[in-house]
Amino acid sequence: MKAPVHVSVTGAAGQIGYSLLIRIASGQLLGPDQPVILRLIEIEPAMKALEGVVMELQDCAFPLLKGIVPTCDLSEGFSNASWALLVGSVPRKAGMERKDLLGINGKIFTGQGKAIQENAASDIRTLVVGNPCNTNCLIAMDNAPDVPKDRWFAMTRLDENRAKSQLALKAGADVASVKKLAIWGNHSSTMYPNYFDATIDGKPVPEAIADEAWFADDFIPTVQQRGAAIIKARGLSSAASAANAAVDTVQSIITPTESDNCFSVAVHSNGEYGIEPGLIYSYPMKSDGENLSIIEGLDINDFSQEKIKATEAELSEEKSMVADLLP
Ligand code: NAD
Ligand code: LMR
């Protein structure tokens, strides 16, 4: 039996937490032979609701779940953590952009970044889900300067999954046949689902879907606005699909990527593809099971270039909006 891995989850009593914790405790996050200890972080007013979540986790009798630590103390919450999933924050309402949340959510990530640096295990890796996730990740990362920059991630996998489903529906293909679809840039309405490099059953997407106008008029706006469409329909933001995407992200990070595929996650940019160094920018990624790398050397046409610069500009703007939270 392997030693248990400590996994910290903030916002554990929230919507996403409710779907996510069951997936972690059942072994879907880190694998069927990896025991876990859940460190569940909430704010004081939500501790009562968290008690109920803890009871439900106990009632599942998951063999891999070796301990549960519900807490509103950040030191205790991140103690020994090898994974931190930062979900806890306020979701947007209809009519808002995600960056409108920076004023209320941004400051959460200064204290959490510091607490991760001071308390987590030396192999800590952090995935930020709470919006606006790229810039919140930047805030946490910059407040934890001793944690290597390649251990910080912000979630764009939900956008990738959405994009793949839209392509599969349009082509009448199985979603599993859609590969190499990467989201570039920000998890926001400027994100760019780059379909030029994607394939369906091995065929380039622009050939598999011979409808040029559909990509600009329908596909890209649908993916960019999907979060808002769900809020409009449900009155609440996406939760089960977001939890699923968090599981997919961690799985993709810790599993070698197939040679004909890639996945999307926002990482610290070192200037790849001419993007401003220091931003948390989503790229096409691959993993060898231990380390991640950005897939380099892709041809970027003029249409794509304009899109990847537009989403970079928005991230630069968000960075300037939180200058007071960056040490
Ligand atoms: P929710 O309101 O249901 O739950 C949020 C939880 O976070 C609440 O229980 C709240 O008490 C807790 N919380 C608030 N501040 C906290 C803090 N400082 N420390 C710890 N916990 C705190 O919201 P939700 O639907 O679970 O969404 C959570 C976040 O995830 C939102 O910001 C939402 O926009 C974002 N989100 C991101 C993606 C993505 O693809 N990146 C997808 C869906 C939702
Ligand atoms: C999503 O993409 O569903 C989330 O980021 C929630 C939102 O605010 O759109």
Report on this structure.
By secondary structure, this protein is of the alpha/beta class. Helices cover 40% and strands 19% of the residues. It contains 12 helices and 14 strands. The strands form 4 sheets. The protein has a 6-stranded parallel sheet with strand order 3-2-1-4-5-6, sandwiched between helices. Strands 7-10-11 form a 3-stranded antiparallel sheet. A 3-stranded antiparallel sheet has the order 12-13-14. β2, α2 and β3 form a beta-alpha-beta unit. The mean pLDDT is 98. The chain binds nicotinamide-adenine-dinucleotide (NAD) and (2S)-2-hydroxybutanedioic acid (LMR). Nicotinamide-adenine-dinucleotide binds next to α1. The site of nicotinamide-adenine-dinucleotide has 29 residues, from α1.
Question: SSE layout and pairings?
Answer:
Layout: E1 5-10, H1 15-25, E2 36-41, H2 47-60, E3 65-71, H3 74-78, E4 81-86, H4 102-105, H5 108-119, E5 125-128, H6 133-142, E6 152-154, H7 157-171, E7 178-179, E8 182-184, E9 192-194, E10 199-200, E11 203-204, H8 205-208, H9 212-224, H10 226-234, H11 240-254, E12 263-268, E13 280-287, E14 292-294, H12 302-321
Parallel strand pairs: 1-2, 1-4, 2-3, 4-5, 5-6
Antiparallel strand pairs: 7-10, 8-9, 10-11, 12-13, 13-14
Helix pairs in contact: 1-11, 5-6, 7-9
Bound molecules: nicotinamide-adenine-dinucleotide and (2S)-2-hydroxybutanedioic acid.
